[in-house]
Design brief:
The protein is α+β, with helices and mostly antiparallel strands. The protein contains three helices and three strands.
Length: 127
């Protein structure tokens, strides 16, 4: 076999990622990382709100105003809550149990003019 045939046979067996393939995967990983970095704080806020609502429902407030004031006090303690306030809570009584529900939308800016809209909702019940 000649040297040219050996080199062309070796080149045909080589496998790997091309520069364009590497660029594509790099952009894809960067986009996913951007979304994750922007969404994580909203998930943290939701879990904080959920925990606060459950705690207030477990304490069984006597009046609606008392439950809303308790949430506003918790909001002042937890600096991560900024999307809703006590006035946004839906407080009802079902089967002699207090149920506190909440729902809100969060717009997450990704890059101009693209936004991600996340709809959060949850509830807390007394025992």
């Amino acid at each position: 076999m000649t040297r040219a045939k050996i080199q062309s046979a070796a080149a045909a067996r080589q496998r790997g990622v091309t520069l364009l393939g590497l660029l594509f995967w790099g952009i894809l990983v960067a986009m996913v990382a951007l979304v994750v970095i922007r969404v994580l704080p909203t998930i943290n806020e939701f879990t904080t709100i959920q925990r606060a609502v459950k705690k207030i429902a477990q304490d069984q407030p006597v009046t609606v105003a008392e439950a809303r004031n308790a949430f506003d006090r918790q909001k002042n303690i937890e600096y991560s809550i900024s999307s809703i306030g006590g006035q946004d809570l839906q407080i009802t009584k079902e089967n002699d149990k207090i149920v506190i529900r909440f729902a809100y939308d969060k717009e997450v800016p990704l890059f101009e003019p693209v936004f991600l809209l996340i709809k959060y909702s949850g509830e807390g019940r007394s025992n």
